[in-house]
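Anyone? Bumping this.
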Amino acid sequence: MIMTSITNSGWWVKLKRFCAPVPLLGWLLGALGAVILEHIAGDPFSELLGLPKIPVLFGALVMLKKPLLIPSVLLYVLVIYGMPPALVGRLFSGLANRAAEKLLRFSKPFSVLIHLALLYAILHTWSDLSAYRLLTLKFTLIAVMLTLSLNVINGYMGEFSCSHPGFMALGAYVASTFTLSLFVNDRLFGEALLPAGLGPFLFPVALILGGLVAALGALVVAIPSFRTRGDYLAIISLAFMFIVKSLFENLEIVGGPRGMGSQPNWANLPTVFVWTVLCVWIINNFVRSTMGKALNAVRDDETAADAMTVNTRKTKMVGFLFAAFWAGVAGGLFAHVLRYINPGTFGIQRLAEGLAMVYFGGLNSVYGSILGAVSLSFLSEALRPLEILKWIIIPLLLILVMIFRPTGLIAFKEFNVGNLIKPKNTAPIED
Amino acid sequence: MPLLQVKNMTHYFGGLRAVHQYHLEIEPGQIRALIGPNGAGKTTVFNLITGIHHPSKGQIILEGENIVGLRPYQIASRGLGRTFQNLRLWRHMTVLEHVKMARYSRLTYGLAGAFFGTPKRNREEEAIEATALELLEMVGAGGFAHQNVLQLPYGAQRRVEMARALATEPKVLFLDEPTAGMNPEELLQMMAIIRLIHKKMGVAIFLIEHRLKVVMELCHSIQTLVFGEVIAEGNPSEIQNNPKVIDAYLGQDMVE
């Protein structure tokens, strides 16, 4: 009801018409303009508007703390973030379209790389202005990885897994142990064994190792629970999560309940960004292949899948282990962003967050996972001043989504990169 | 040697004897039917042969190899394709994806191909897409290729299921009541399609059917199953006049 009334109202149609001719390249350039503008004019402009400093998360924090400043913040957001994309989008849409077309003609991978480079430039410039932004951004990117990998199990495969924090913990602890014992003089593991200069190059090895151990953990869950369908996986995986947590609580070698800290600062923005892109790319490749679509077939009707030559047991195993691997990698990154982990970090609250992001964004959809992870991460940061009220507003929002869109905001939609980067107003380009 | 041979197959569900001493021989290119009153065990016979249930006793031999105990996907990839009595379609997938999925066991690009989108994978996906479109064209569902399967009319869904079964490259195609719930027009279409695939692909067909018209016109040979036992076997006219068959369907009075 609400959805249709929004989509039918006049301003929505106008906005759509306004946006229609602008390709993604145009938006990215516009956004780049916005963040550069903020870099140059952010400080004096916010001083002019009477703001204490530049609004960090699009003004949400300031607005909630000091309602009197709402008009200034809105003006700031409109001028700094709204104007450049609108101007660039509108004025240079023809140019951007031609550029996008040329890029695509030249080579699709190259065009994708250019888009990604632009995206990175935007994120880098934006997060450059405040350490808080940078941290939020890194956690958001990690949340994207986690949500997407959880979506592989809960969305694409249609099972209900609760063990993601457990996989994440395995990845985090293994990667941390690897880096701390090899490259850092640490209270737990003693002298560094290798020169620290080698570290950043071996960091991917640490992450992959973490992912592999997480996948091994997934195997332990998968063997008993995939013999049947239904709630078993949910129960076994929940148990697994608690087992992993208490395992680390009792392992004094990795710090026990106090956890371990001072991981080297190698998870900088480029690293996190590259791993996130890699994760999205590989998962998207997988779920769009016939081999990955077998997950959907098993979910929708396992008997039929079996009769159509699909090895259902292998399919489920692969899907589950694959998802766990990425959760492990995300855990490793998380440990090196926060630079401190303890068993309590990987508990039921992280599970709730992950599940909320998956179901809010949309099942069976890469767009949905990205949207869910980004919006809930930002929302949970932006509503921080509300303290306890935050935990009423976010669940309420989830309930609303469940009522009006039971499968999530963008569910069951294919993430077609070819369509995304193509110029607008031209013939569709086949992927 | 027959293509598919079932010997002495017996199956119990707990204490219930669902199928007893069942025999079957299918030669390449034959069309055979299995008829019988409701609850006679026809679908159970299908499920036993295609591996969904494992028979309590007996042998199932496909091209000289015993396939009892293999998992359904293994049996399917060895050449027994099937459709289901109550359509079993994947509700979130498009028609084209359905048919492509049935090529699963023939994919060779492996996980590396699936993860990294290698050129080999792209080539293979294109090839199976072409095959799938051809099959859909053949069953007259080519126009629906990119629609979600639930948006299709019932008759078209049946045909999609048939194309999907054909995509597994079966040697014997098992059709479980291919015309159930169809109107007369759809019925004729379906019969034409069965004839067409038989002629074009030379596949042997074994079908369960209630409508005599279909059975009499299409089949070379018919088995009648009552309470899990074959009571009569022969060509259509023999079956039509067999007193035991008439008895099973219509009751003792009609025989006299």
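Late reply, but here is one note on the structure posted above: DSSP finds 19 helices and two strands in chain A.
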